[in-house]
Amino acid sequence: MAGRRLRDAVQQELQSEGTFKDTEVVIAGLSNVYTHYITTYEEYQVQRYEGASTIYGPHTLTAYVHKFRGLARAIAQDKVSELPVGPQPPLFTKNLFNLLPQAAADKTPVNSSFGDVLQQVDPYYRQGSALDLTLTLQQVDPYYRQGSALDLTLTLQQVDPYYRQGSALDLTLTLTLQQVDPYYRQGDVVSITFVAGNPRHSGDIRDKTFVTVEIYDNRTDSWEVVHTDASWETRFHWLKGSKGRSNTTVEWFVPPSAPGGYYRIKHFGHYKQMKGLRPVITPYEGTSDVFRVSPSFYYQWPPASRCQPPSTVFFFYFSARPSGHELDPSTDLLLL
């Protein structure tokens, strides 16, 4: 009941100023309350648990209503800065002490620097590499997802005009990969590992982040941050090693709402090194390779992305059945 009376008093004060006529007032007094219970004058007279716990007497609520009316009036008149500050609670930070020892200096493996990538987002074939495949009809899916290959060279060696289901179809495929990017779908987990410093050396980073997931915006030719370490979709794992070395693994759980496009992951941190007897804290950052996220199980052109798709898409169809027969997914291979 005390909360209702306080709420109604604040609402009446706001409405009387004419600025907040349709305002709904909500009071949450579950934290930073120094006066313990606050009951109405009537409840205090009964002296049950709540009334007996109102330690500043029966007029506690009246005092609160008076103060909150003044605060509501100042808000409506935009005069909050003119209110008296009043007494401040005591600060005990100067009397606190910490038993946790200082973190040791950071080191890197040989021939590496802080922020270097130890494990990239995904293994992939680079431009000019070759991939040799032998396909067996009985073990081949009827559909293959469209990969990253934009330039495909095929060499068929001694292929019979007709194969029965279960027989082996030997194909030698030489793929020349041009501008290949790793490929992820919505729901996948992107993982990358960096050479890192101790996160404790980053100090107070409440207004910063250890991780960003960024998407490339083709319209502005720039990278835009879509997730940080405060996002539910990201994970930041720090693994302490020996001799001051440590690694950081960043994971991004690609949400269903992620737009298709080109992404990268960045890691930010600080490392400590000793300059004589003086510790020196230095910032660093690392960046993953660019990778691609598709909005659906199969590629769709044009993709739902702000990035430009490749100008040419090749479709190749291989059939192990004679001409004139209908497509049979159990024996025919469709490569997109």
From TrEMBL:
It comes from the Eukaryota. It is an enzyme of class 3 (hydrolase). Zn(2+) binds at residue 37. The keyword GTP-binding does not apply. Residues 1-65 form the Neutral/alkaline non-lysosomal ceramidase N-terminal domain. Its cofactor is Zn(2+). Its EC number is 3.5.1.23. One of its GO terms (cellular component) is cytoplasm. Residues 68-131, 177-293 form the Neutral/alkaline non-lysosomal ceramidase C-terminal domain. Keywords: Hydrolase, Lipid metabolism, Metal-binding, Sphingolipid metabolism, Zinc. Binds 1 zinc ion per subunit. One of its GO terms (molecular function) is N-acylsphingosine amidohydrolase activity. InterPro entries: Ceramidase_alk, NCDase_C_sf, NEUT/ALK_ceramidase_C, NEUT/ALK_ceramidase_N. The keyword S-adenosyl-L-methionine does not apply. One of its GO terms (biological process) is long-chain fatty acid biosynthetic process. It catalyses: an N-acylsphing-4-enine + H2O = sphing-4-enine + a fatty acid. Pfam families: Ceramidase_alk, Ceramidse_alk_C. Belongs to the neutral ceramidase family. PANTHER family: CERAMIDASE, NEUTRAL CERAMIDASE. This is Neutral ceramidase. The lineage of its organism: Eukaryota, Metazoa, Chordata, Craniata, Vertebrata.
